[in-house]
From TrEMBL:
The keyword ATP-binding applies. Keywords: ATP-binding, DNA-binding, Nucleotide-binding. GO terms for biological process: DNA recombination; DNA replication initiation; double-strand break repair. One of its GO terms (molecular function) is 3'-5' DNA helicase activity. This is Unannotated protein.
Amino acid sequence: MGYVPSLDISLLIESSKLKYINHTHQLQVHAFSSSDGALLPGRIFEKIRKGLTHGPVLFIVPRKGYGNALLCANCKNVAVCTCGSRLVVTGKNSDPQCLVCRTQYPDWTCTWCHGKKQYLGARGIDRAGEEISRAFPGFPLLLSFGDVIKTTVENKPALVLATPGSAPKVLGGYGAVVILEGWKFFAHADLRSQERARELFFETAAMASANAHVLVSIDESHPIVSSIVRWNPGAMIRRELNERLEIPLPPYVASAVITGEAKDFTLIAAGLRKAIEDGRLPHEVRVFGPSDEGRNTAKIVMYCPREKRADLALFLHELTRRRSIAKKEFLTIRFDPYSL
C-alpha cells in the first residue's frame, strides 16, 4: 500500500480495468532551488523556524554516511584511489579513505592541481546533521537511518533527519517536513527510480501535521511540486507511461533478465539474436547486452510483447535445461523483475 500507484497499476487504471479514487488534500508546499550547492537554500530558514514552534521538523536526506565523495576545492576534480575507486570521508575528523580497498590518505593532495583543500560532495546524513544543527542551535538532533532506525519520536520541537524509508512516525504529524536535494531522488538510472521518488515525496508530505509546510529543495517548475499541491500524481504518471509506450518499455512489454558468469555471455547474446533470426524466438523479441555487472558477472536484458511472454519463457527454460545437461555455468533468469 502507498500514496502513489505503480506504473503497472497505473496502466490498469488508464485502461479502465481499475478505478482510481483521488481524495482531495490541501497542502502548503514550497519549493526552493539552490544555485550555490548549499544544503539549505536561504529562503527556507524562516519556514523551518516556524515549523519548530509547532513540533519536530522532519528532514529527508538522500543518503547515509558523511562525505560520500571527495573533491578538490580548487579544481573540483573527484579524488580517486590508486585502485581507481573514489575516496570518501566517514566522519568529521576522519582522513579520506578508499571506498573499496579502504586505503587511507592522511596527507591527501589533489593529483590534478596539487591542491590540499578538500570539498565534500554527496553529503550523507551525518554531515547534513552537523550543518542543520549549526543552522538551528538549541534543538535536539535525532537521526534515523540504516541499522539505527527510530520508529517514533515525541511531538516536541526537534530536528529529525532520516534517509528514505526510515522516517519515524510522530503523533499529530510534524511541524514541517523538508526534502533535501530533491532532484537527486529523480536522478537514478534504473526504470523504477521515478516511481520510487514520487512515492517518497507523497509519503513524506503525508507526515506533515494539519496546516504544516512541506518544503522541497528542488526547482519550483519540477512537476512533483504541482503534483503534491494537487495531491494527484496522475499527470506525472501519464507522461512516464507515454514515454514507455514510445520506446517501448515495461509495463507495456514483458522483460527477462539473464545474469551469470561473464565469460560465456557474448556467445549467449549472439545465440539469442541468432534464435530470433532463425524464427526460434518471436521476431519482436529484443536483446540488449551483455553488460558488465562487476565481480566477473554479466547481464542480458530481453523485451518482448506481453502476449509473447510464454514463448520467451519456454525458450529460456529449454536453454537452461540444455546448459544443465552440458554441465555449463548456471544462469539466473528473472521475468518482469521489479527493476532493470
